Amino acid sequence: TSHHAHARRYSTFTLTSISLLSLSTILGILPLVSSLEDFFVNGLFYTGLPLFVGMVTKQTHYDVFSVYYGRFRKGRADLSWAKVRDLVEWMFVLGDSPATMGNTTIHFYGNSGVCVFKYLVTPDDPQWRFTLLVLT
Q1: Could you tell me where the DSSP H helices lie in the chain?
Q2: What does the alpha-carbon distance between residue 135 and residue 37 come to, in Å, rounded to a whole number?
Q3: SS3 101
Q4: How many CB atoms neighbour CB 127 within 10 A?
Q5: CA dihedral in degrees (67, 111, 48, 64; nearest 10)?
Q6: What is the pTM of this model?
Q7: What φ, ψ does residue 129 adopt, rounded to 5°?
Q8: What does 21-48 look like in DSSP terms, one character per residue?
C-alpha cells in the first residue's frame, strides 16, 4: 500500500541521515583525539625558545636532535610527539631534571590560527591520507 511505501521511504531517509551525520561527526572529531596526535599534529610552537622559531615540524626536530644527541638518523619519523617533547625538555636540563618547555600543539584544524579542514595537502603533511579518505 501507499502508506507502507511512504513509511519505508521515511525510515530509509532517516537511517541514511543518521548514518551520514554519525560518520561526519566521527570524521570531524577524530583529528582532535589526543591518543591520535601522531597522525594529526603538524608541529609544535614554542614560546620563548629561540632555538625553534615558528611552527616546528617533526623533521626540523629530527635535524636538531641528530646534531644535539648525535644518535638520530636523518628523516626518522617513528618517534611520537610525546617523545619529541621529552627530548626537547632534556636538551635544557636544569640539575638532574629536564626543563619544562612551554609549547603549543598545531593540530589538524589549527594551522596558524585558522580553524578549517585541510583540503590542500602535500605528502609532507602527516594527515594527507586522512584528507584523501575524506575527499573520496
Answers
A1: 2-29, 37-40, 58-68, 81-91, 128-135
A2: 21
A3: coil
A4: 20
A5: 0
A6: 0.67
A7: -65, -40
A8: HHHHHHHHHGGG-GGGHHHH--EEEESS
Per-residue pLDDT of the chain (136 residues; tens, 9 = 90+): 677 888 888 899 999 999 999 988 888 788 878 888 888 888 888 887 778 888 888 888 888 888 888 876 655 557 888 989 888 888 887 667 666 777 777 777 765 545 556 666 777 777 777 877 777 7
For residues 42 and 27, give the distance between their C-alpha atoms in angstroms, rounded to a whole number.
18
Task: Compute CA distances 72 → 61, 77, 78, 115, whole Å.
Answer: 10, 11, 11, 34
Cell of 7: 513509511
The kind and range of the H/E element at 103 are: strand 103-106
The cell numbers describing 2, all together, are 501507499
